[in-house]
Design a protein that fits this description.
Subcellular location (chain A): Cell inner membrane; Membrane
Structural class of chain B: mainly alpha
Helix content of chain B: over 70%
Number of strands of chain A: 0
Keywords (chain A): Cell inner membrane, Cell membrane, Cytochrome c-type biogenesis, Membrane, Transmembrane, Transmembrane helix, Transport
Number of domains of chain B: 1
Distance between the termini of chain A: 39 Å
Protein name (chain A): Heme exporter protein C
Shape of chain A: globular
Family (chain A): Belongs to the CcmC/CycZ/HelC family.
Number of helices of chain B: 10
Shape of chain B: elongated
Largest sheet of chain A: none
Number of domains of chain A: 1
Oligomer: heterodimer
Function (chain A): Required for the export of heme to the periplasm for the biogenesis of c-type cytochromes.
Order of helices and strands of chain A: HHHHHH
Structural class of chain A: mainly alpha
Chain lengths: ~240, ~220
């Protein structure tokens, strides 16, 4: 039993078909519980009032925006090294989901920033690096769209993802150098004294779990769609030859 | 290698090669920005480092698709790929040729345009030095982007979408160096980081670009 078994599209389709309903159900449950708990059953922050509740969308979306790129990097590497098509298709499937999470993080951040900092947007390092991440996602998706041959597209986007990761990381630290920020530092670390208070922390954990599950469900579903589209193309090609 | 370099340079110099186009574009940016933001000298001087760097970057972008596209169309890229010279070296030489016909003239022309933009006198040396250190990175990164889209018809727009995010660190450190130089502050940190990006990109991206070309020629 190894993970490479799922490189076989048939095996992947079978297993994912079985797993998908549970992932969807768990994601819905976590998001439902987490968001209701967070929005209605936690107290208002004594300085931020009820705007603090944006945290339940903002933080998980931002985390998943970055994690989605990391996942694309890993699957791209697997594609480049082991040539498993499912891996390349998973990377392709994850990109629009990651882009959506990035946009959600930016928009909820703007809604949070307006009452707290008095501005929708500031050229703060974190905000700026997220905007740049959005551009990387757009370029990656555009390259997938532009190249016709699917294997060529998979190869080129995988190379772009590798190089893009290095430059995204570079940009992250370059913008730190360029401007000091308004955004607070990390307040969810496991090893720090001062963190988010427990009342907010537990529903936030549930929400993060919900976003992770939602991401997994969406990527599985989109990968299944890609595999089906690939099969359709193969069938059509065969028909044209016959 | 020498033959390839001189060939690329000669092609770029000939009519239709696009030599001078980047320079003209750079000049236009430097003329249009004051027309847009107003002639007030103090403000122009403050935004001059950023404008000059963004202008140089866009001017560089303009001629990127020529690095490989024409050779891909007439088949000489296939010949180069099968030649005994490694494809990585081909990429490096072509990026260097691109720098010689765009980055270097931009660097030389920048002080003249800095006069138009009222850059403080202290900034001139740092402007030239930062462009000299940074524009090679623009050419190498651009060559990588051009290698990615070489098989795409009308890939120019896509190329800019791919390449501009990769230009972010170079732009930040380059403009920051000029800004600090113009304000009389220490500039060694951004200049060193800029040189690091150029060296790192020059050392690694030819391999990525060559891989992309191999995929496109498959």
């Amino acid at each position: 039993m190894s993970i490479w078994e799922y490189a076989n599209p048939k095996k992947f389709m079978q297993t994912s078909a079985g797993v998908l309903p549970f992932v969807w159900g768990l994601a819905a449950a976590c998001l439902g519980v987490g968001l209701v708990w967070g929005f209605f059953l936690t107290p208002d922050d004594f300085r931020q009032g009820s705007t603090v509740k944006i945290i339940y969308l903002h933080v998980p979306a931002a985390m998943m925006a970055i994690n989605a790129w990391v996942m694309m990097l890993v699957t791209s590497l697997i594609w480049l090294v082991r040539r498993h098509h499912v891996s390349a298709l998973a990377a392709k499937a994850a990109a629009p989901v990651g882009l959506t999470f990035t946009v959600i993080a930016l928009v909820t951040g703007a809604f949070w920033g307006q009452p707290m900092w008095g501005t929708w947007w500031a050229w703060d390092p974190r905000l700026t690096s997220f905007l740049i991440l959005t551009l990387f996602y757009l370029g990656y998706i555009a390259l997938w769209q532009a190249v016709e041959n699917p294997d060529t597209a998979a190869d080129l986007t995988a190379v772009l993802c590798l190089v893009g990761s290095v430059f995204a990381l570079l940009s992250r630290y370059a913008v730190l150098f360029w401007n000091q920020g308004l955004h607070q530092g990390a307040s969810l670390s496991l090893d720090k004294e001062e963190n988010v208070a427990d009342v907010f922390w537990f529903p936030l954990l549930v929400c993060i779990a919900g976003f992770v599950l939602l991401f997994v469900a969406l990527v599985l579903m989109r990968t299944r769609t890609e595999i089906r589209a690939r099969r359709m193309a193969a069938l059509l090609a065969r028909e044209r030859l016959a | 290698m020498w033959a390839l370099l001189t060939r690329d340079l000669r092609l770029a110099m000939r009519a239709g090669g696009g030599f001078g186009l980047g320079l003209a574009f750079f000049l236009l940016v430097a003329v249009l920005v004051p027309l847009g933001v107003g002639p007030e000298g103090g403000m122009l001087g403050r935004i001059a480092p950023g404008i000059l760097w963004v202008g140089a970057l866009l001017a560089c972008l303009l001629s990127l698709d020529r690095i490989f596209a024409l050779d891909f169309e007439d088949g000489s890229l296939d010949l180069l790929a099968t030649s005994p010279m490694p494809l990585e070296a081909v990429v490096a030489v072509k990026a260097f040729a691109h720098w010689l016909v765009t980055g270097l003239p931009l660097t030389v022309a920048a002080p003249v345009l800095a006069v138009l933009l009222n850059l403080p006198v202290e900034g001139y040396g740092w402007l030239v030095l930062s462009l000299l250190l940074g524009t090679p990175a623009l050419s190498v990164i651009g060559a990588f982007g051009a290698a990615l889209v070489v098989g795409v018809k009308r890939g120019g727009l896509l190329l800019s979408l791919l390449v501009l995010p990769l230009y972010v660190p170079t732009l930040i450190f380059g403009a920051e160096a000029v800004k600090r130089g113009a304000a009389g502050q220490a500039v060694d940190v951004p200049l060193l980081l800029l040189a690091a990006i150029t060296l790192g990109a020059g050392a690694m991206l030819p391999f990525a670009a060559a891989a992309a070309i191999r995929v496109n020629l498959r």
